From TrEMBL:
It holds the Pfam family ABC_tran. Residues 359-370 have a biased composition (Polar residues). Belongs to the ABC transporter superfamily. ABCG family. Stunted arbuscule (STR) subfamily. Residues 36-286 form the ABC transporter domain. Residues 1-10 have a biased composition (Basic residues). Keywords: ATP-binding, Cell membrane, Glycoprotein, Hydrolase, Membrane, Nucleotide-binding, Translocase, Transmembrane, Transmembrane helix, Transport. This is ABC transporter G family member STR2.
Length: 715
């Protein structure tokens, strides 16, 4: 025991000394100087499945099981494995997107909480969520505005974006719209590169990419990975999942993590895969790719009665997996020992004899290159059982933090670098950002609102049909009303006409906002993507959205008011009429946007909005006046946002002693009393305030949904 422990402890420092005169490395090799380390990551979900008797049973399933390893700094780490291996889950776990995760993740030797990782990393999703009506250049410029903050000057931002466009090979399509199903835009490969560009504009210390090559042809895929490789060489830690890398792409990957069924199958350099297979007794046939061969072997075991557990065990302890029938394994020193089930009938001692045997022979062949530190696996045989695979860290804190070896000192980024732009060091356009970079958000609040507003206006400018269609509806309705109810006479019929006109106006204004439902549902995914890395605050998004709509809603209500006011020779104040219509549009817009943030898709969104609008219409006081509504439903009358413009507009029209009908004699005040509506002068302005109150209330609800419910996290 003591011997093992001693051995495991002193092997590392020696290697550091060996490395003292290193050959100039092509790229930084992994000392413990930096990178992402993860220790026994486990993620369990409860799965319902049909039992033998047909009844449902709940079962705990490990989507990730005790995965330990590292992703070196300055290298591209690829996560591979058959489908269903847990690649995306593993990436989510590292990126801090899983709420109930066991295990720890450390960056450069410092343990990281999920929120800290999210702040210092960028995550490129499989699907590209971009605004279709912005050009490539605009998309990247807005990203620069959000991510780089106000400390970087506008000309610097432009320079960075220009460099990035060139590096990503997007020069020819820089002024092309991104496009979507309806509008032709950039090609799939270009869109994917823009998507990556948006997330790397600020040179994150950590970059996660989920299948960056899916759906791309081989040339585009290669150029994407090449770009990612350049980012890694600039000193970032890059982790990506990849499905079927071509041979060219394999040359760009520095470190592999191979998973199957949520267990670790292999962790190390692509060149050592062959040796790993040789030790397993499954030598690679001539002319076959060693990584593909390993994936084949994994599939064979997955289909056999052993499952992939023996391979995970081999990866951890070097205990040789049992041979499969018909496997072309070569006999080695170990296979003469009867292969026992992994649960170890032979017990600890058997295990140990194997381990010591292994630590003598098959592993020694790995250390061919003097410049390379031994991988974790080498050390794992020389430590007392019962320690975690990272046991040796705990005993040598001086190594964890990276005593400045000639290599690590070149790659540790000092605090000072973050304060100044990284031009002085001759760094590439993509510099490295600090982890705690300027607090939580890059920009101050007003700047965020301003940038978001600019982007909203650009989008509205490019897709005017949404706004124009609503304006057209209101214009046409205005003309219809103006011609239907021209100059109502002073008679009972005239009064009825006026009432009909007002209730219809309120209705048109409420129903015309329904088309705002899809607007936010489309943006929601972009919002989630941008805020998951703190590009801006949720509240800034809400405020910017509100301000953007103010002038457009004002134009709509003014158009309608101007058409009907003079045609119908209405009474009261024109200003009040306009303000009330404007307030109606604001509150209904807030309501619709709130509903669309809660529902999962368009269809439910429309259904909910129409149902609620109909309810509000029923309880607004036109069908039953507010005194006649049964007590149990009184609250619906208060909640109904249609009640306020309806009563307000009637007060504005009828209040006062003017005669509206000679036979029977009816003054305006009498009409209001009969409708159970107040006749006080200032009541009508209170109605506007109530309505605006509801508008604010729905905006706040919208904010709460965005802030707390739209999280991009697995439970």
């Amino acid at each position: 025991m003591a011997h093992h422990h001693h051995n495991g402890r002193h092997r590392n420092p020696e290697t550091v000394i060996d490395m003292a005169p290193p050959p100039p490395p092509e790229k930084p090799r992994f000392g413990f100087s930096g990178g992402l380390e993860f220790t026994s990551l486990t993620y369990t979900v409860v799965k319902k499945q049909r039992g033998a008797g047909g009844e449902w049973e709940k079962k705990d399933v490990d989507l990730l099981h005790e995965i330990t390893g590292y992703a070196p700094k300055g290298c591209v780490t690829a996560v591979m494995g058959p489908s269903g291996a847990g690649k995306s889950t593993f990436l989510d776990a590292l990126a801090g997107r899983i709420a109930s995760l066991d295990g720890r993740v450390a960056l450069d030797g410092v343990e990281m909480s999920p929120s800290l990782i999210k702040r210092s990393s960028a995550y490129v999703m499989q699907d590209d969520r971009l605004f279709p009506m912005l050009t490539v250049y605009e998309t990247l410029m807005f990203a620069a505005d959000f991510r780089l903050g106000s400390t970087v000057s506008a000309s610097d931002k432009k320079l960075r974006v220009e460099n990035l466009i060139e590096q990503l090979g997007l020069t020819s399509s820089r002024n092309t719209y991104i496009g979507d199903e309806g509008t032709r835009g950039v090609s799939g490969g270009e869109r994917r590169r823009v998507s990556i560009g948006v997330d790397i504009i600020h040179g994150p210390a950590l970059l996660f990419l989920d299948e960056p090559t899916s759906g791309l042809d081989s040339t585009s895929a290669h150029s994407v990975i090449e770009k990612v490789h350049d980012i890694a060489c600039a000193g970032s830690t890059v982790v990506l999942t990849i499905h079927q890398p071509s041979s060219r792409i394999l040359l760009l990957l520095d470190h592999l993590i191979i998973l199957a069924r949520g267990q670790l199958m292999y962790s190390g350099g692509p060149k050592e895969v062959g040796a790993h297979l040789g030790r397993m007794g499954r030598r690679v046939p001539k002319g076959e790719n060693s990584i593909e061969h390993l994936l084949d072997v994994i599939q064979e075991y997955e289909k056999s009665e052993f499952g992939v557990n023996p391979l995970a065990e081999f990866c951890l302890t070097g205990l040789k997996p049992p041979k499969l029938n018909g496997a072309d394994g070569l006999l080695s020193t170990v296979s003469s020992v009867p292969a026992t089930p992994i649960s170890g009938v032979g017990g600890e001692d058997f295990d140990h004899s194997l381990r010591s045997q292994h630590s003598k022979s098959p592993w020694s062949g790995v250390q061919l290159t003097p410049s390379r530190r031994p991988k974790h696996k080498d050390n794992q045989h020389n430590k007392p059982p019962g320690l975690s695979p990272h046991g040796h860290h705990r005993y040598s804190p001086e190594i964890v933090m990276g005593t400045p070896t000639p290599l690590s000192s070149a790659y540790t980024v000092t605090e000072g670098d973050f304060m100044t732009p990284t031009k002085a060091t001759g760094a590439p356009a993509v510099g490295i950002n600090a982890l705690g970079h300027r607090g939580k958000f890059a920009n101050s609040y007003p700047v965020e609102v301003w940038v978001l507003m600019r982007r909203n206006f650009t989008n509205i400018w490019r897709t005017p049909e949404l706004f124009l269609s609503r304006l057209m509806v209101l214009t046409v309705m205005g003309f219809l009303m103006a011609t239907m109810f021209t100059k109502p006479k002073d008679s009972p019929q005239g009064i009825t006409n006026r009432l009909s006109f007002f209730i219809f106006t309120v209705c048109v204004f409420f129903f015309s906002s329904n088309d705002a439902v899809p607007a936010f549902i489309q943006e929601r995914f972009i919002f989630i993507r941008e805020t998951s890395h703190n590009a801006y605050r949720a509240s800034a998004y809400v405020v910017a959205g509100l301000i953007t709509y103010l002038p457009f809603l004002l134009l709509q209500s003014a158009t309608y008011a101007a058409i009907v006011w003079f045609a119908l020779k209405l009474h009261g104040q024109f200003l009040y009429f306009l303000v009330m219509l404007y307030a109606s549009l604001l509150s209904t817009n807030s309501f619709v946007v709130f509903i669309s943030s809660v529902v999962p898709n368009f269809i439910l969104g429309y259904a909910a909005v129409i149902a609620f609008t109909a309810l509000f219409f029923l309880f607004c006081g036109y069908f039953l006046n507010s005194h006649s509504i049964p007590v149990a439903w009184k609250w619906m009358n208060t909640v109904s946002t249609m009640k306020y413009p309806y009563e307000g507009l009637l007060m504005n029209e009828f209040r006062g002693g003017r005669l509206f009908s000679k036979d029977p004699l009816l003054t305006g005040d009498t009409i209001l009393q009969q409708l159970a509506i107040s006749t006080e002068e200032d009541r009508k302005w209170w109605m506007v305030l109530y309505l605006l109150g509801w508008a604010v209330f729905y905006r706040i609800l919208f904010y709460l949904v965005l802030r707390f419910a739209s999280k991009n996290k697995r439970k």
